[in-house]
Amino acid sequence: MTAAGSLPRPTDDIERAEADLAEHGICALTGVLPGDTLADVRGELYRAAAEDRRRGREQKFGLDYPTDDTNQRVWNVLSRAPVFADLVEHPAALRLVRSVLGWPMLLGNISANITGPGGGEMVLHADQIFVPTPWPSAPQGCNAGWCVDDFTAENGATCFVPGSHLLNRPPTADDAVDPVPFEAPAGSLVVFDSRLWHRTGNNRTTDRHRAAIFAWYTRPIYRTQENWFLSLDPSVRQFASDDMLVLLGYRTAGLGLVNGASPA
Prior knowledge:
CATH architecture: Sandwich
Structural class: alpha+beta
Strand content: 15-25%
Strand order of the largest sheet: 1-7-4-9-3-2
CATH superfamily: q2cbj1_9rhob like domain
Number of helices: 7
Shape: globular
Number of domains: 1
Distance between the termini: 47 Å
Mean pLDDT: 92
Order of helices and strands: HEHEHHEEEEEEEHHH
Largest sheet: 6 strands, antiparallel
Helix content: 10-25%
CATH class: Mainly Beta
């Protein structure tokens, strides 16, 4: 059984979105990426995905079903094109995520999930499975999901279990749940706290892909999922803002010091 609740409706009001995030553990803010920016993001993402396939670097995600090869994960998109850095520190994204995690925080990873026609569902999970149970009542991470394409029930919109964040535990095989697809137009920003149960939906179309970019932020006491010190394109750090240096762990206080001082 899960906690009772419902998913909020997408809104173009960031004040409403922030209130939805606090109440429901999730919100959708529409119209965040204007047409030209959205086209740039979509073009760079699908270009990176095609390059991975061409070079034999296509990867799956650990929570995809082993028998399903229709989902493609594109890791470390931060190093693929400058437009993805703009998503990481987009003012609307940082405002909403900071309302959950405060500041400073770390960027755990930023990757993309592309679900192809006939794509199968992902395993139901919560993002803070690395935290021992019972979980603290406050979320330890927050996901900012960018809708690169329209999210519909038909094309595999991410499905969530309303109210599940209030249980402060991951789902188990004994939980009888019915995840709800969260529909939102392309260019929307979907932010949800790390306790909320979710999975990729089933893409029932025959000719449409559904792409999303997920920037995963955590409280600064956790190690990042992506090892930025090894995988990051050096130009990202070279031109990084002060906030980006904090998010990547290059500018820090208390933890991650070098000879007692922040490394940047």
